[in-house]
Structures are given as C-alpha cells and as structure tokens.
Design brief:
Blueprint (H helix, E strand, L loop, with lengths): L1 H12 L7 H18 L1 H20 L9 H31 L1 H6 L5 H30 L6 H28 L3 H20 L8 H8 L2 H13 L6 H24 L6
Helix pairs in contact: 1-2, 2-6, 3-4, 3-6, 4-6, 4-7, 4-8, 4-10, 6-7, 7-10, 7-11, 8-9, 8-10, 10-11
Length: 265
Amino acid sequence: MSFAIEMSNEASATLGRPPTLSGILRALLQADLTVQLRNGQALLLTFFPPLAVLYGLSAGKRGVQLGSPIVKVSFALTLGIALIAILGYTASVARDRELGVFQRLRVTPAATWTIMVSRLAVQILSMLAMSVVVLVAAAVVEKVTLDPAAYLLTLLAVIFSSAVFLGVGQALVGLIKSVDTVNAVGRLSFLPLVALGLFGHSDIFGTTFETISRWSPGGAVATLLAGAIQTAPWSTDTWGAFLASVLYAVVFAGVGIRWFQWSTR
C-alpha cells in the first residue's frame, strides 16, 4: 500500500503536470527499498544463512570432499542469491498482489514495467550487499582473497546469476496465485535447487549425480560464480554454465512474465 501512496504524492507534487519517468522510478525505488530495510526478517534472510553455510562448509570434517575453498564460496553465494529470489522475492510479490498493492499501482502514472523493474532492482541490490559480506567473510574464513578485477567480475556474475533465480521466482508467482501456496512451493523448490548446486563439484554420490547437479540451475550458477572468482581463464565448464544460466533465465522469466497476473481475481 505504501507504494501507491508514494506514487500519489509524486503525482501531486507535479501540480498537474505528468510525472517524469525518472521521478516515477525514483519514487518506486525509494518505497521498495524502504520496505526492504524495515523488514528485519528479510535482512536476516539476506546475510545470515550464506555466512552460516560458508562457516559450516569450512569447519566440517568432510568439507574438503565438496570442493576447493573457491567452490565453497561460490556455493555460499548461490545459496544467498536463491534465498533472496525464491523465498524473499516470491513472498513479497505474492503478498502485495493479494493485498491489492499492484492494482493500486496500476492506476498511478507508473508503467507496469517500471513497477517490476523497481522490485527486481531492490532484490539485486540485496544480493550485491550479501555478496560483499560473503566475500569479506571468505577472506577471513577461507583465506580467499582476490584482486580488484576478480572482485568486480564476481559481482557482475552475481548480477547475471540473479536472473536465473529471479526467473524461477517470477515463474512461481506467475503460475500460482495463493500466497500460502507460493510460499510452500518456494520452499519445496528451493531445497533441491540449492542441494544440487552443492554437489555439482563432488562425486560423493557418483559421477551421474555429479553431472546432473553440475547442469542444474543451482549447479550452473555455482560453476559460473566459481569461474568468476578464479583468476585463471574460463574453462569449457564455466562457459557451458554461462550458456545454461542464460537458457534457464530466459525460460523461467518467459513463463513468469507470460502467466503473471496483477491481482488474485
């Protein structure tokens, strides 16, 4: 509801003149970011789980079987991105749709694409903040330090990887209307996506399972992030993960956009 109020204030401030595109986007971003910062649960979801998993993989006795320190850092980043996109983003969109927030926004001067761009931009900002915290923790816990170019490439890979899981989240809210059902299906789909990514570089359960895990959405993202963290040139697997991530993002986002409805009625 605060989004619609913010847009009404923006419109009133122009004294009868139509608001500019930059003004609309600024008002939407400010409102979305304010709601995100005020949500303590969302902030906890953003930072704590990937840090806990990074520490757990480093301290565990079998941590070495899951891959190198770089692989563990890439998995922690993958987990954080998936949490924000599949659990946080879907819950927020489904809840606001049920409360009628999107219906109110659609009668404001804001175009429908600006509404979604603002939501997605805030989620990506959360992912970047989480990534910076994880990379700092990785330098302390796993002694993984990068040169400035590698840090920049990793953050760019995070932005690109976010398209995969935000696409999955968009598909969920596009196909499912009920808030409770969206939350339940999000939790159920989150577990296999992340679990497969964990074993994408380990043959603990055999080479067949490793191959399936490596080319799953979570595995492709983890491989892509590991390639970005490394200073060496990208391997065939990294480029393959890049192409697989593009395919997953296009398919899931296409489904989510095609069947998304702005209200539950």
